[in-house]
Write a structure and sequence with these properties.
Order of helices and strands: HEHEHEEEEH
Number of strands: 6
Structural class: alpha+beta
Radius of gyration: 16 Å
Shape: elongated
Oligomer: single chain
Length: 100
Amino acid sequence: MEAEKIIIKPLLTEKSYAGIQNKVYTFVVSKDAGKIEIKKAVEQLFNVKVDKVNVCVVKGHKKSQNTKAGRTVGKTSDYKKAIVTLKADSKSIAFFDSLS
């Protein structure tokens, strides 16, 4: 699988902003990707050295909306999240440096 298809987008939350100083970055990744594939994709895309990768599947939650026609119930989609820790001697990712 190509690196661009594995790493979908960065996940920017308050908790992920706190990890940027410690070289811990969070990404939304493909559901089919494993830890080794994610590690290789991050190293290839950003030219960094990855120490470890933690992954978890985030379940979608239910949403409801009241309209004139009645109540509409839906669900957000599930996604896979990867928390990537870089090695201490590795450079940081430039995209996240501009955010902090």
